[in-house]
Design brief:
Structural class: mainly beta
Mean pLDDT: 94
Order of helices and strands: EEEEE
Helix content: under 10%
Strand content: 35-45%
Low-confidence stretches: none
Oligomer: single chain
Shape: globular
Number of helices: 0
Number of strands: 5
Largest sheet: 5 strands, antiparallel
């Protein structure tokens, strides 16, 4: 179930991009994970429990 919207500003709570600004660009329904783009070429999939809205940081 999708909890975030495409284009929302977020950050992640763990890993190499922790506390870095990112944007949700895709939701994979099969894996139930969001693809977050951190820069032009850096993007990774994260589950909903690893993501927070940038405004809540």
């Amino acid at each position: 179930m999708e909890q975030f919207k495409l284009g929302e500003s977020v950050t992640v709570t763990n890993g190499p991009f922790k506390d870095i600004y990112g944007v949700i660009v895709f939701y994979d329904k099969r894996q139930e994970k969001y693809l977050i783009r951190f820069s032009g070429q850096q993007q990774l999939y994260y589950s909903v429990d690893e993501i927070i809205l940038w405004s809540e940081k």
